[in-house]
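thread: overnight batch results

M.L. [08:02]
morning all. the overnight job finished for the chain we discussed friday. pasting input first so we're all looking at the same thing
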Amino acid sequence: MITEEELAIFEYELVKLTAEYRECVDQSLKLKIHEDMVWLKTAIFSTSSYEQTIES
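M.L. [08:03]
and the structure it wrote out:
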């Protein structure tokens, strides 16, 4: 289970990676950044879905 602090860090890192992705011109680096973004989005989304299930 992800704590609220960890979730906040994931969201912050996602914002940073999104900005870096937009500015990046190296396609191989851009692919790696995108993979990290997908992982973070999955972690954030799965946590929010889990919390919504608990609340229901």
